[in-house]
Amino acid sequence: MAELEISGSDALLGTLYDDLRKAAHREMRRGGSPQTWQTTAIINEAWLKLHTRNDWDSREHFIRTASTAMRHIMIDAARARLAACRGGGVANLSLEAAADVAAESVDDLITVRLGEALVELAVIDPELARLVDCRYFAGLTEAEAAQVLGVSDRTIRRWWIRARAWLHREIRTG
């Protein structure tokens, strides 16, 4: 990721578009429903949320905020799909089609529960919640997350272990 001058969301998005696209694409491959969302759609939705802001402190500030925006977009989409599965005008399905819908619904439930758990984690430990946004929703590597969050790689590894353990426990018991 190249150095850049901060002059507003449009300039930042133009400069970081390829990085955000790669991050969103990694997230789409890793989990969720690729047939429901496309990488470009996630980035465009994030841009709609961010383009009016011009108060970016740094490239890292923009990436952290874009990561959080992508999280909100994906969780909102999962909630909408779950609501549609509850009878939003859907016709009767064959047993095979119902199995496919059920598998997608489990992914959506996990995504929604992850979002709820992240809200709780942000209250307890905001740094861990920001790390999850960067690693999971923006798909940043440990080194990239360390740069964005302004800490060492070792700190990121320790935080990532703590965040995953806490989220795993919360999602299983929630």
Please provide a written account of the structure.
This protein has 174 residues and is mainly alpha-helical. The chain has 7 helices and no strands. The protein has one domain (9-173). It is globular, with a radius of gyration of 17 Å. The termini are far apart. The model is unreliable at 1-6 (pLDDT under 50).
In short:
This protein is mostly helical and 174 residues long. 76% of the residues lie in helices and 0% in strands.
Question: What is the topology?
Answer:
Elements: H1 9-30, H2 39-50, H3 59-85, H4 95-124, H5 126-137, H6 142-149, H7 153-173
Helix pairs in contact: 1-2, 1-3, 2-3, 3-4, 3-5, 4-5, 4-7, 5-6, 5-7, 6-7
List keywords for this structure.
globular; single chain; disordered N terminus; 174 residues; mainly alpha; 76% helix
**How far apart lie the N and C ends?**
38 Å
SS strand fraction: under 5%
Q: In percent, how helical is the residue content?
A: over 70%
Spans of 5+ residues with little confidence (pLDDT < 50)? 1-6
Number of DSSP E strands: 0
Structural class: mainly alpha
Net shape = globular
Indicate the radius of gyration in whole angstroms.
17 Å
Largest sheet: none
Number of domains: 1
The helix-strand sequence is HHHHHHH
Output mean pLDDT: 75
- Total helix count? 7
